[in-house]
Amino acid sequence: MSDSDVEIEEESEDDCYDDYYNALDDNEIDQTDPRQNDPEYFEFECLSIQDVERLLNECVEALCASLQVMPSLAKVLLHTHNWTELDVIPAYRQDANKLLSDSRIKPLRPPEVDMQVIRSSNSILCPICLQTFPGEYFRNLSCAHYFCKECWAMHFEIQIMQGVTTGMECMAQGCNILVPEDFALNMLSKSCLRERYQQFAFSDYSHPELRYCPGPNCTYVARAKEAQSKRVTCKHCKTSFCFKCGTDYHAPTDCETIKRWLTKCADDSETANYISAHTKDCPKCHICIEKNGGCNHMQCYNCKYDFCWMCLGDWKTHGSEYYECSRYKENPNIANESAHAQAREALKKYLFYFERWENHAKSLRLEEQTLQKIKDRTHQKVMANEGTWIDWQYLLDAAALLAKCRYTLQYTYPYAYYLEAGPRKELFEYQQAQLEAEIENLSWKIERAETTDRGDLENQMDIAEKRRATLLKDFLSV
């Protein structure tokens, strides 16, 4: 083996990753085009309810003109086919009966009941209320299951109160024919129910280009040409959410993975909370300590020992050990262990990631208090003529960036939990650890902003954001 081969083998893992980072920082992060510079860049527009209604009506009118169908039928067709006209039109022209049957608008086979005979009868028994009415008092869908108007109205009222509108079906047992909008509105006599039906139906129309803002009492809608797992921020209530799934933004974790993670947390969180207490003992003097700030760099108030809240390691050597702190160490022999041992190992792995996920969520809440302290301190300094609001704005910018970086870091743990072992996971864990280290440095400096040099703080902000951008650039799924 040559000397050069020896040198390559002895090159540390951190050195390899540092070369990788330097290449990225020089060639990819510092670009002027926002599409390249920001991995979360996403083009969208905010629409009002009136804009959305106009958009949906245009789709309905276009389909009505193409297929010569009623607007209520066009709405059902579009809604059941994700508002994609290019799918509906050729399918309708090829086999209209099959499309209507697949869309639950008409049964595939014609009904055996002659509704003309029913309507002309003087006395018909309603199958629901068992009362007798003239035939003209009965109504039916395309399936020809007939019921009196009172029973239809009661059925719709119950469904609407439960939030069901576009999914309302025929009352007959085993029949799944959908109720069109005009039929339901004709049966509803109460104006409040009609308005509620229309509101719920409007919210149910899941157009692929639209996402309703989940902000409280916000009526605006985000529109984009492609449903990607990217951040959109409502321009009216400032709520941020994932455009693809409409839930809280969760980069770099994809929509399916975060759904699995949140379901698991809902099932196992009580166990995790029981095992992971909010207090820990100082590793040096063993006095009980409660975490009251967002930073994980802890200093014991009793013995002044500096340590990491997560792994309880000495903070002085933590710069070189952060990779170990944020990485879960798998048991290489777990496949040969008993089922009980495997279950215990699985719980141990989950608790490792859950504790870090929950810790960063708690840090975000605590750092909101730090932000308020910064605002109060800034106000005091401005009132004391120790600078203007602009002079102290950098502290608010630093706190905002810290929240942004820590939010991303929190969502790296579900991603890491489900990521298969291998080189890609090793790279991800390294970048995750680097980001975590820079975030903790930033948090430490913000909490001690009185003694932190402005230039040093702004440099730390730049480093932290570059680490975050690099991780998202490599691992953000769209």
Stretches where pLDDT falls below 50 for ≥5 residues? 1-31
* Sheet having the most strands: 3 strands, antiparallel
Strand content: 5-15%
**Computed structural class:** mainly alpha
Give helix % range.
Answer: 40-55%
Number of strands: 13
| Coarse shape | elongated
Q: Kindly report the average pLDDT value.
A: 82
Fold and architecture overview:
The protein is mostly helical and 478 residues long. 55% of the residues lie in helices and 8% in strands. The chain contains 18 helices and 13 strands. Strands 1-7-6 form a three-stranded antiparallel beta sheet. It has a two-stranded antiparallel ribbon with strand order 2-3. Strands 4-5 form a two-stranded antiparallel ribbon. Residues 1-31 have low confidence and may be disordered.
Short description:
With 478 residues, the chain is mainly alpha-helical. The protein has helices at residues 3-10, 13-29, 34-37, 49-67, 71-80, 85-94, 96-102, 115-120, 149-161, 181-187, 191-204, 255-275, 318-326, 339-383, 393-410, 412-418, 423-447, 454-475, and strands at residues 45-47, 124-125, 132-133, 138-140, 146-148, 210-212, 221-223, 231-233, 240-242, 279-281, 288-290, 297-299, 306-308.
